[in-house]
TrEMBL record:
<dbReference type="InterPro" id="IPR050289">
    <property type="entry name" value="TorD/DmsD_chaperones"/>
</dbReference>
<keyword id="KW-0143">Chaperone</keyword>
<dbReference type="InterPro" id="IPR036411">
    <property type="entry name" value="TorD-like_sf"/>
</dbReference>
<dbReference type="InterPro" id="IPR020945">
    <property type="entry name" value="DMSO/NO3_reduct_chaperone"/>
</dbReference>
<protein>
    <submittedName>
        <fullName>Putative component of anaerobic dehydrogenase</fullName>
    </submittedName>
</protein>
<dbReference type="Pfam" id="PF02613">
    <property type="entry name" value="Nitrate_red_del"/>
</dbReference>
Amino acid sequence: MTEKNLSWYEYAKAFGFLAGILNNSPHAEMVRQLRDIFSDPGNRFFHGDMHAGNKTMSAYWHQHGEKPLEKIVQELAVDWTHLFRGVNPSYGPPPPYEGVYSEKDRVGINVILDVNQEYLKYGLSIAEDKKDRGDYLGYELDFIRHLAEKAAAAREEGRRDEEEAYKTSICEFLRKHLSWTGGFCSKAADYADTDFYRGFLILLRDTVSEAAAAC
């Protein structure tokens, strides 16, 4: 499946974690959960505790984990907004939409339509209360999570042809729609203010790159 030989559930967990960070501005409960995750040496997402991304994220919690919760929430929320919302080009990268990074017009209407079609093919759509386009990186990563969970269920039930079909869909989506992720991570790294998001960008880049290379 991958060079790290992850199970489909581990694969889904890895992409679900990445998507969750991108899709949610930090809030108190989320920060508590992250603090717990990175205080547990057994946690890993694709790589291991010695991976540079995990080490850098863990370093943030070792240095700041005892701060008042509201201060951590505020610090991470500001960094999240700068990195992932594209509010102002003077203090953040262009927002992580596939069309922005892969199309010359920096919009990519055809990309948006194509991604939405992929979602619909599997019975998914963007909720009406969501303000982002379908080609937002967090949604694309969450789509990979969804397919990996479907592949896991197919394997457990002995439906190997279906599992292979989901694997093919994952690989095609990675190749067609997520090859721009590394470029975004490189740009965003110049603007990250916290070790948590510096490490996250490293982990994001390597996770997507290794998943694609293993196809």
